[in-house]
Fold this sequence. Notes:
This protein has helices at about 1-15, 355-365, 370-405, and strands at about 25-30, 35-40, 40-50, 55-65, 70-75, 85-90, 95-105, 115-125, 125-135, 140, 150-155, 155-160, 170, 180, 185-190, 200-205, 220-225, 230-240, 250-255, 265, 270, 280, 290-300, 310-315, 315-320, 325-335, 340-350. By secondary structure, it is mostly beta strands.
Amino acid sequence: MKQVVAVALLILAILLGAVPAQATDASIYFSPSGGQYTVGSTVDVSIVVNTGSHTINAVNTEISFPSDKLQVVSPSVGPSFVSIWTAPPSYSNTQGSLSFSGGLPNPGLKSSSAVLATVRFRVKSLGTAPLSFSNTTKVLANDGDGTNVLSSKVPANLNLVAAAPNGPVVSSTTHPDQNTWYNDRTAVFSWDKIVGATGYSYKVDGSSKTSPDRKVDTTKNEAIVEVDQDGIWYFHVRANNGSWGGTTHFLFKVDSQTPAQFTPKLNRSSVSDQESAIVSFFTTDAASGIDHYEVKSVNTTNNNEAVTLYHEEQSPFELPILPKGEYTVFVRAYDVAGNYTEGSVNLSVKQDLFPVITALRRVFTDPAHNLATIINLSLLLLLIIAVIILTLRRHKKRVAEALNTMPPAYAPTMPVQQPVNHDINPPAGQSH
């Protein structure tokens, strides 16, 4: 009976507010947190803060998004609870990052769904696009100490799909994958015939929502188009079978230009045939971006040397030790579409007359690179010292043992010399 009364009193106390509710920390999340969006369309994603049981006055957040899937169109649209921006909204569509930092004056804010900002993204390509908050994201309480009360950062995941064809089903023999870059500006498209169609209208531009005009461009179910510049393009087609039907949009990416010109750099233009040089390289590509680099070295003083092949490497790259001669180091930069730009730099390899000195110089001039050599030399030096110490100890032991086993030293008997009396006057009875 007493237990029942105690439980009833506890419930009553909670209802009347006599027992304080447990404090809850803040959380931050995306809205929407998912959904399906077509390539070429835009989606508005809000960053929302739930302050929990706290009153807050500042928020600092950094968002990561896949730059190959999404592109920020506008970093802030619509209302925001922030009235003082300590760092204006900034973003990088190259790195896939977006940051906000701001707050509001006393008495602060307490809300379960306060909108920090709304970001408009453009959908660039097919796939999934995860959105996440960095570890530097904070929600600060209005407590005079700026206590970080954030305990939950909820990510989002957007599903990016191709626009549903409400017209003919389109394919391409030259640009078949809508998610891949190609280096050909001429594209060939074909589509399934529409029953009863008397003709088709098509158009190419940079928008995903264009509908061709109501003019028959072809009675065939194929078209060859050529674009005048690199970039992301859309082929639009619809059929007329008594009335104009829906439009199908087919995305294709073109990058026909090579990456920017560049010149590789050597850490040393001349080395010995006991040393290796380090080559560094970097360039950019305006459309599809750099995919990888390839390197090879050619001996220009020996035409009979076997032709070397390019091999994929990353910068900086340590060239192998080469025999005496003059060399040209070639570096090719490939973009995602397969175009490449080649840069080169000359390297002179001299015969080393003092290889031991060169090896020691390498150890002391580049200790980080020659860490293994330093370790091996140190171990060798310790081994030599240990052998010397052990040899000295054994020698000392042999000497001690020899001294302990030797017979007592032989001391020859010497005649005892009688003392000479030098008195001038001899004793009585004696004469000189």
